[in-house]
Amino acid sequence: MAATALAHSPQSLPPPTSIAKAPATPAKLWLCAHFPALALEALKIDTTQAIAAIATLNGRPGLYAVSAAARQTGVEPGMTQNAAQALCPALTLLPRDPAAEKAALKRLAEIGLHFSPWVSLDRPDCLLLEIGSCLTLFGGADRFRQQLREACLAAGHTPAIAIAPTAAAAELLAGLGLETQIAEPAQLRSALGPLPIAALALDGKTLARLGNVGIRRLVDLWRLPRDGLARRYGNGLLQRLDSLLGLQPTALNTFHSPPAFAARRELPIGLTRLEHFFPAVAQLAESWADFLRQRDAMALAVALDLHHHRRPSTRLELRFRHGNRDAGHCLALLREKLERSPLPAPVLGVELLCSEIAPFQPAISSLFAEEPTTEANSDWQAMLDQVQNRLGHRALRRFGVAADHRPERAHHHDTTQAAMLTVASPRPLWLLDAPEPLSADSFTLLSAAERIESGWWDNQALRRDYFIGQDRLGRKLWLFRELSGNRDWYLHGLFG
Amino acid sequence: MNQALEDLLRSRAGIWRGLHSDHAAWPVVGSGFPELDTVLPGGGWPLGTLAEIAIPAVGCGELRLLLPAMADLSRAGRHIVWIAPPYQPYAPGLLQAGLALPQLLAVNVDTEDDIPWSAEKLLRSGGCGMVLLWPRRLDNRQIRRLQLAAETGSALAVLFVLPGQSYPGAALRIGVCPSKPGLNLNIIKARGSLRRSRLTIRF
């Protein structure tokens, strides 16, 4: 797509300054900010170096995005890793991080909300802003565009910004890197006409068929009769063309920034004792619970900041195992945490912050009262919250089995996935983190061999003969002998 | 002893009856080994107490001794908690022993002080059936607190102690030693009984 955009000369488009005076009633005008290097920028590394993001393309790993420095050496998106590294030995390859890209786009959408109330994230790598209604506040499209660009650059992302009366046209222009402005719907045909049809994001087959009959640009398509076009190439093409011109309405979802809670209370004097300033925290927690109830939401984590005089404030963070909006529970956890953390200085103010908010899920109770009461269960969960907040979020481990023959992978700590035990031969009660080498004369064997030979498909293959043995202390051991290499003995588990 | 005398003795609260104490005083969970149940006062592991199992080394059969009781408790919906276990408890083996895996929980701690703290929290909650601990040191006050927490939550707290350690506050003390057919048990102390007995159980 980049190549076709370069082939097309932007001079034939109307110059950016050709925007006409805004009509009396503001018509819809869409701005699209496309972030061509989002995949690289989201990785938070220096994008001026030769770097590339790798993703799975058509079932095999390939280059998804390439920085400008790498592009100069001839590396293009879609190449295999080996080909790219042959062209540019200094190339840094990193896996693409779609979650980071999504988070970056969300941050950009928050910035967009400073400019326009209607921000949409429906299109990939793009922000779509409806600006017709708010253009006068910024003193014209040029200034609007300039201010948005500066805000995006400050956030570390380089946008290509195009403005058009329809969202689809703005997206098309921005996607090609053409920073144009089209003010009137009547100008759309002439402005979009010279663009290559490859930019329409049609499937390859349709594109090839259109190319075969000599259709290269959008203007060629508009010259053809509509009914014939629909009969030959399907309705999809026609709808795509209509949405470009605004003949076909498109519905876009608006982005809303998620709610966040922050409340602060100043204390009259610096307080050092927990029981003196804790009532202020309790008031904050009550308003936090109200805030969540009003939005039918629950919090996944909260943070409490203790402000001091001329000192960085102390932050206490709480994370709930399940979403929570109970002020009493939150306070009990905060008190537990406060009692254990020494205060560096008197507390002048307290601030409760909560940004991780999810829709509320009420407790589900059973129709038949056979199961343990939910109250007892919620007490248990509250107690586990307390333990976890003191010991850290990795302290509590659940038990689960996985359908894998390799002993190391037959258990896990995630109870959301249930699996059946696939083996019938006895398994130990303890498993060593790493097998310990064992000398062959320190044990006697009690069982025949159980061969485990598995895992060739994910490069973690093992070939072992497992035995039950007994050592001099009389302990029952689970041990194995490597079938490859020098056939050493290892201790892997104990029967406890 | 005739029935009239028996009833009379039973009706008075202040009489200590030595070996013939009334075992209905505390709930128990069957150990799964009939020969052990007959020796233990009340006919099983006493709930609501602190038990100490002295082992020569980790892994010499002490877990298999507790497995039937753990399986019963977990299937009854009570939690089995492992605090600071010396190795990873292995879920496939535990499942084969008949334990309900959703009821199991392992707690890993960073500091020694967190072991009695978390044990007390979990015991007191009432949701636990059994809490297994591998402490390195506990003072008498902590032992006492654990004993009280176990009583509050009606749970069995099991301390596994290595040679050289001893906690006199425990209500039940058993020394174990692996032997050819299974495990030799030496019941050093059991609340509600003055007998010291030795027996062998087979796995």
TrEMBL record, chain A:
Tagged with keyword Transferase: no
Top-level lineage group: Bacteria
Pfam families linked to this entry: IMS
SUPFAM superfamilies: DNA/RNA polymerases (SSF56672)
InterPro entries from the UniProt entry: DNA/RNA_pol_sf, Rev_trsase/Diguanyl_cyclase, SulA_CellDiv_inhibitor, UmuC
UniProt keyword annotation of DNA damage present: yes
All copies of domain UmuC, residue ranges: 39-173
Protein keywords: DNA damage
Family: Belongs to the DNA polymerase type-Y family.
Name listed for the protein in its UniProt record: DNA polymerase Y family protein
Native source organism of the sequence: Methylomonas aurea
Lineage: Bacteria, Pseudomonadati, Pseudomonadota, Gammaproteobacteria, Methylococcales
TrEMBL record, chain B:
Source species, domain of life: Bacteria
InterPro entries recorded: ImuA_translesion (IPR047610), P-loop_NTPase (IPR027417), UCP037290 (IPR017166)
Gene3D superfamilies reported for this sequence: P-loop containing nucleotide triphosphate hydrolases
NCBIfam families in the record: ImuA_translesion
Designated name of the protein: Translesion DNA synthesis-associated protein ImuA
Organism encoding this protein: Methylomonas aurea
